[in-house]
Design a protein that fits this description.
Elements lengths: L1 E5 L30 E2 L16 E5 L3 E8 L7 E9 L5 E9 L7 E3 L13 E9 L5 E9 L4 E9 L10 E7 L3 E10 L7 E9 L4 E9 L10 E4 L6 E9 L5 E8 L18 E8 L10 E6 L21 E4 L5 E7 L8 E7 L10 E2 L14 E8 L5 E7 L10 E9 L11 E10 L5 E2 L2 E2 L6 E4 L3 E12 L2 E11 L5 E2 L1
Antiparallel strand pairs: 1-3, 2-32, 4-5, 5-6, 6-7, 8-9, 9-10, 10-11, 12-13, 13-14, 14-15, 16-17, 17-18, 18-19, 20-21, 21-22, 22-23, 24-25, 25-26, 26-27, 28-29, 30-31, 31-32, 32-33
């Protein structure tokens, strides 16, 4: 259902080309699990009219870009968040969450008070992110757009009851929309220091085409935040995307990100040729809780894959923009991203790891088990996420198109690949399991001409396995797409349930 509203408040998704070095992927499992649990439903904003603006349009009941957090002190408490009701020019009418206190047997929908439609001050949001602290405090952040005056910025909310109720948002940063665009904030609660959390993101100055990597932290549980400050400015024309902080066992902070020639202008920018590079995966270190940071070090030179619907030039929008990182209990850091150089299909999942605090990294390896194909074919895999269980087991999730045929529509499937042991560092030993699908990707919400599920999915661990939150389209008549959740248990070998 389309409703017509204002001119876009957001410029749109950033994009660019990425990286490589081939390796062998594990064979795929043919077993299909029972259907995953759907945690989204009808939009809670259907009757809202307070965000009306002539000139733009939103699509009701579109959910995208899920984020997932699990309480480390009580893994039965889990929260999934997503963008709700996407606008044609980018962003959403609000953030919606699904919360459970019984390990996913039952879910309750909650709308944090961010936008006008949920009792908050902002017009739109995008890029939601959730994280639990060691004391059970839950943090949520998003890129937000103010209405009067027109601004973009970053805001954070907190919850002390597992997401059943939320504080008012605290604005961490805001700038006039006419000159600045804030993008992709990621929030990390310090796992060993209660009340301390860190947020990082990119801010683009559209006047002089410079970008700043901005950082802020809280030491009082999110009640107040330090003034946002630039910890890195790339060369003119380059920006950062996918910034994410991990905390090593000794307290060292690492910020990992993708650096490239990102420019405003929408998701179509993801189709730019690799000649626009160079593009880099990079890391910065802080040994004093974020007060000072090292200069960026390069993990690898990259070439971003640009997944498309098979047999067409139609991009799968946002599916290859954002890398993901994880750290295990021993301090091994692993990173995944979409890579154009590791398979003939030009869209594979790459993995690299570091066992020395991010100083040196393994050769990037392809880890998805998707049968390869010619460029733009059914061998494409995209939107990878990674997490590490306490025992060191790695889990990587992604979509791929291996089930697509010549029949109408585009069959996409969501997978998890798990691995334990040193062989994982060489891209070996990963075992795949199907989490959801096949589903019809052609039925998804269209943004900049292509299907859009989001630029990341949710993945987190419990004491005994992993939980994945992801989007599937075309599953219900009259509803473009929904958010689904599935558990993977790892008692003596991971299995989907």
């Amino acid at each position: 259902m389309l409703r017509h509203r204002s001119r876009s408040l957001f410029a749109a998704a950033l994009a660019a080309p990425l990286l490589g070095a081939p390796a062998v992927a594990a064979p795929a499992s043919a077993a299909a699990p029972a259907p995953p649990a759907r945690v989204s439903g009808a939009s809670p904003f259907a009757a809202c009219t307070t965000d009306e603006f002539p000139g733009d349009a939103y699509t009701l009941d579109v959910e995208a870009e899920p984020t997932l957090a699990i309480d480390p002190a009580n893994p039965r408490r889990r929260v999934v968040g997503w963008q709700q009701d996407r606008w044609a020019y980018g962003s959403a009418r609000g953030m919606v969450t699904a919360v459970t206190a019984d390990g996913g047997r039952s879910w309750r929908q909650v709308t944090p008070p961010l936008t006008l439609c949920s009792g908050g001050p902002y017009g739109r949001i995008t890029n939601p992110w959730l994280t639990f602290g060691p004391d059970g405090r839950l943090y949520a952040t998003a890129m937000v757009a103010g209405i009067a005056p027109l601004t973009t910025g970053v805001a954070v909310l907190t919850s002390d009851d597992g997401g059943r109720s939320w504080s008012a948002p605290v604005e961490v940063a805001a700038d006039p929309m006419s000159g600045y665009f804030h993008d992709k904030p990621a929030l990390t609660a310090d796992p060993r220091r209660p009340h301390r959390a860190y947020v990082v993101w990119n801010r683009h100055n559209t006047t002089d085409q410079t970008h700043d990597l901005l950082f802020s932290r809280t030491t009082d549980g999110g009640r107040t935040w330090e003034p946002a400050r630039s910890i890195y400015r790339p060369p003119v024309g380059d920006g950062t995307i996918g910034n994410q902080i991990v905390v090593l066992p000794d307290g060292t902070l690492l910020d990992l990100f993708h650096q490239g020639p990102f420019a405003p202008g929408g998701a179509a920018a993801s189709a730019r040729a690799a000649a626009d590079g160079p593009e880099l995966l990079r890391v910065m270190r802080s040994t004093d809780g974020g007060t000072t940071w090292s200069a960026p070090a390069t993990i690898a030179a990259t070439e971003l894959g640009v997944p498309v619907l098979p047999g067409t030039a139609t991009p799968i929008v946002g599916a290859s923009l954002v890398p993901d990182v994880a750290v295990d209990a021993r301090g091994r850091v692993s990173m995944v991203w979409n890579d154009a150089r590791l398979g003939e299909s030009r869209s594979a999942v790459a993995l690299t790891s570091s066992s020395d605090g991010g100083r040196t990294w393994t050769t990037p390896r392809r880890v998805n088990g998707t049968p390869d194909s010619p460029p733009g074919g059914s061998g494409q895999a995209f939107t990878p996420q990674i997490d590490a269980a306490p025992d060191g087991t790695l889990a990587i999730t992604y979509y791929d198109l291996r089930d697509d045929t010549a029949a109408a529509g585009t069959s996409a499937t969501h997978w998890i690949a798990t691995c334990h042991g040193r062989a994982c560092l060489r891209g070996k030993g990963f075992r795949e399991r199907r989490l959801g699908g096949p589903f019809d990707l052609d039925a998804a919400f269209r943004w900049f001409g292509g299907p859009y599920l989001g630029s990341y999915t949710g993945l987190a661990h419990t004491r005994h396995g992993f939980v994945s939150a992801f989007v599937m389209s075309g599953e219900r008549a009259g509803d473009p797409q929904d958010v689904y959740v599935r558990d993977v248990t790892c008692h003596g070998g991971c299995r989907v349930r």
